[in-house]
Amino acid sequence: MDRKVLLLTGGSRGIGLGIAQEAARRGWFVSLGLRDASALPDGLSADDAEAVPYDASTGEEAPWVEGVMKRHGRIDAVVACAGVLDHDSIVTQDDDAVLRLFEINAHAPRRLAAAAWQPLIDSGEGRIIVLASLSGKRVKSARSGLYGFSKFAAVGLAHALRHEGWDHGIRATAICPGIVATDMGLSAANGSRDAADMTQVADLAALAVNTLELPGTLSQAEITVNCQLDGIY
Description:
The protein is α/β, with parallel strands linked by helices. 39% of the residues lie in helices and 15% in strands. It has a seven-stranded parallel β-sheet, with helices on both faces. Helix 1 links the parallel strand 1 (5-9) and strand 2.
């Protein structure tokens, strides 16, 4: 395939779907890892995308990568958007819930990057985006503490991948938005803001694909964005 190939998780809705649509519009071919891969999400066609069965909690990254390489022969970027929000207390006794949070928000992106590592090297301009959160930069409240715990790990992962891949031409970025106008964003806002006053998915998607297309000499380790005044963010 002559077109660049992007692997993307969390593309059934929200930020992930927005990034998939924007990347396809710019000429990327998008392989979406979806729990329900029976049909492509709205705004995507078989000319520019495919749906592959994938569950971030069960470790199906290697078969996904192997299939993409057989079908398309290349992987140029990985965008990890799949994530879960949990408002439980940081001192919860529910270890299973905490482990699930980390499994999806931090471990799955690491496994996907590792599975795609050699193709990203072979690309010569491999790109990785970990969709983290401002909750990975600061803990704003007790309500967001446990979620922030997992997103700090996600930000650290992006930095570690950036160091590991630098000499191979791989660039990794943690994108850390505040509240975005999605179902998850509305839950996080807890009634404090209207969707129109939040960061819009289309704007964040454009920022993400811009980041994928930056030259290696203009690498950004982190990008923080916000829709409200929030300390240094």
